[in-house]
Every structure is written in C-alpha cells, then in structure tokens.
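Hi U.,

Before I forget, here's the chain from the pilot set. I'm dumping it here mostly so it's searchable later in email.
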Amino acid sequence: MNIMKTFKSLIVSTAASLFFFGSYAQGTSTVLKNERRIANNSLEVVARFDKTRPGNVAVSADGRVFATIHPLGAPNEQLVEIIKGRAVPYPSADLQKNGKAASAETFDTPLGIVVDKKNNLWMIDMGLELGRTRLFSFDLKKNQITNTIEFDQIIAPKGSFIQDLAIDESRGWVYLADISNPGIIAFDLSTKTARRFSGDKALQSEDVDMLIDGKVINFGGKPARVGINPITLSDDRETIFFGAMNGTKWYQVPAKLFREGADDETIGKSIVKFGDKPVSDGVVTDQHGNHYITNLGGFGISKLDASGHLQDYITDRKLNWPDNLALSKDGYLYISVNQLYTTPAFTGSSDAGKPPYFIYRIKL
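Structure:
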C-alpha cells in the first residue's frame, strides 16, 4: 500500500489535511491473561474534545499536559496545552495554522510529542502539506521554541511519515520512526547529523489483520499493512524498543550501535525480539522496564513487563481507539482516545465518530 498516495487522495476528497494513520489492535487473534480489569469510573477525564480529535499526549515533570491535535479534518490548532480541562494553543496562537495553508512560520501536521528528563518538550512535525519534516524543542519555563531542525530529503524523502520519537537527553540523540518508508532515524543533536536505518524485516508490517469487535478495519479499500510506529527508549537510554503497528512482536536493539555508526547489517543482526504485543498504536516504557501498549481490539492497555510477559492491564469500552500514552512523575498513565477508525479514511464514507473525544488518566 502506498500510504502517502492514499493520504493525498483523502485530502482531495475530504478537503482535510493529511492524516495520520493510527494503528489497530489484533482483537480476538491474541489472547492475553488478565492482570486486572479497571472499572469504568476509574478513568479520570483530563480533557474533552467536542470537535477535534487529540493526537499524542505528553506530561511535564511538574504535571503540565500537552497534546497534538490529530491532522485529520484540518484543525485550526496543532499543539495545545490542557489548562483546567481546556485546550489552549501552545506556545502561542500565532504558531498554529488557524485554517490557513501551511507555511514555514507555523506548525503543519505534527503528531509525536514527548517530554524528556530535562523537562523539555519535543515534537515531530511530519510536514505532510508543507513537504518539510521538522523537529521542534520547547523550553517549558520560557514557553518558547529552542530548536527547529529540518531533515533533508535523504533522511526524510518525499512520502515519509515520521510521526513517533524518543529522546536520549543525556547523550543528545533523537530516535524517530517512519511508518511510510519503514525505518529508524537517529539524529545527533551535537553534530546536527542523521542516519537512516531501513530495509530490515523487523521494521516491516506483519501479515496480520487489524480487528475491532471482530471486524477487519480497512484503509484505502483493503486491510492495511503498516510498519514501524511506536519507538521508545529504556530508562538508561541504552536500548531502543520498537514494533510494527500491525505486528505482534516488540523488538529491542542497542542504541550505541546508532551512536557509534554501525552499518545496517550489524544493526540488523543485533535486533532481537523482546516480547509479544497486540497490534497497537502508542507505547510508553517506564523506569522499571515495563511497556504499556495500546490494545485497540481489546479496548484497553496491555502491559509487557520487564521479563517479557504480556498481560491485559486496563480494559474499558471508553478506550475506543486509545491512540497514545504518556506517564507522569506522580504515577499516572495518560491516554489519548479518538475513535480514529470511524473517520472517512477508514469507513470510506462519512465520519461515524461520536464526539466527544478524550484524554484520560488513571493511577498505576
């Protein structure tokens, strides 16, 4: 499937901005042992979205909550801070597209965001309208952009869909995932140089259907096959974890191979399976080596613990397409939920979504 070609055709037919193709859970094809089930009233509403869909979510060390707005539907705002339950443009309204065409002076189609251990906010803007993939960092004390890095056509060629990232703040490296041209991009902040690792089987989609309530979810008129999406780092930043969106394996590879300039063959031979996972979208890895993984077919979150054991962790019908996850310092798991499979890109007709959409949190 040519993901970018399909996205562009959707823009023409829906008069919307280019769209992030989220992931799906495997549903009944993976059976997980329950660790615990969470009652409906355990999910706390952080923010409610009556018109737009939240994309990814991030939480600062002092509990500030940030979210991208999903590019589908040409939202006026691209990046917001949640203040008293309201989505407020961040860091200013002037940096949002506000219904205008994309430009170098505004955000375009961002999705992935994360707060690093130094309490800086990072965001990857896929540039699907502008044609320029940019990485932004923000000083959360000054509420200002501190870095804007644009990737060249060798690293981010036409048709790229670079939408997830992980930060090694101590060594100054950024690792990003491209689902359209499946690959890992490693960027050295000190030298401003990047390399792309691609072609390995582990980066590709598995031949696994994406199921919700037992129904195969189509994209572009047929079951989608989408490669690497979630990418995370271990707490010591020495191990990169990743997996395909519609895949059942969670992989690991030493980060130092990228830092030390190892060739693709060496990196490929060093990739090993860490454990199983459901077909998923977002993943977050905690300081103890546990991986919390969105499980769309299960309307929940799965937990792959440090020993490689996979279990259901949260099950709740409110988690209707949990798109992305973030952890806070005070032990909450934040969950962005947006019913993405009900959009015209998947239904092939009208939007079947039933607002509102939510960011939830739950105490772990």
